[in-house]
Write a structure and sequence with these properties.
three-stranded antiparallel sheet; elongated; alpha+beta
Amino acid sequence: MSLKINRLAMKSGQIGPKGNQPNLPLVVEKEREIDGVIMGVLSDGTPYLNQRGLAALCDVQNAHIGTISSQWNDVDQKPRIQRIKAILEKVGKVPATAHIEVSHRGVTHYCYPADVSLAIMEYYAIDAGVNVSEKARDNYRILAGSRLRDMIYSQVGYDPRRGKDVFAKWHERLALNYQSAPKGHFHVFNEAHTIIYELIVAGADVGEKFVVDISIGQHWSKYWDDNNLSEIHGIRRKYPHRYPDDHPQAKANPHESWCYPLAALGAYREWLQDEYLEGGKFKGYLAGKVAKGDLPPSFAQLAISALVPDKIAGPRPN
């Protein structure tokens, strides 16, 4: 750190955040550096940026962020501090200090929690007068709301849902539908398990608002009709598909959905990989969810990287 801040720093043993016992020292549980920005998660689940990384996102000198910390509790509050605290008051509670001081691998870390970081970013994006920059404004637009927190969690590989059964809603649908299709047929929901699993692992809240098998089923049905696959594999049939009671779709139970001859299973799986995943349809589906705010961009990237293999360039001609 180019600027050492020893005054007014919150010691990790002095605080007892939600989920932590009082006087239990905080430690860095996960940390990663991406393009010069160090981010991580403390042992109580607090996502943070380090001082230099926050300065980079705000497009200011590292010393400016350090000064915010050192002036945080001054009796004569500077307008900058007043504005940042006012932003924090609107969304929650103003912390005792701007950063949390934690020792990690023998080095003192100055950890700015995501909510504090976002308030500082908003100040430099909107309220900093001559110090407002286009870069700060762009970064704030990208990371506003819960996106900064979600990005940190996903980039360092931390699951904030620990202890929660994130597969529960999917398992409920499986229990209702795994034997629904008649003998000799398959349905898209059961064949979408790999994609659904990867979405859940990546952080998607797969439930009543996130039903990827509907997207897959619609595209496959169109492909089936466009290519007259009934003439090759046999006639498809309808089967009763049901949703759990806590899903709004349950009001129309049972839904009539298509199921397909097992003879077409190989063709379906090839289509799923070549057309849906690698052909851009899956990416388009996720982009729609990101646009609606149902999925953070970083989680969409994780799901794509897990399911869509990188293209391997062939040998260059001599």
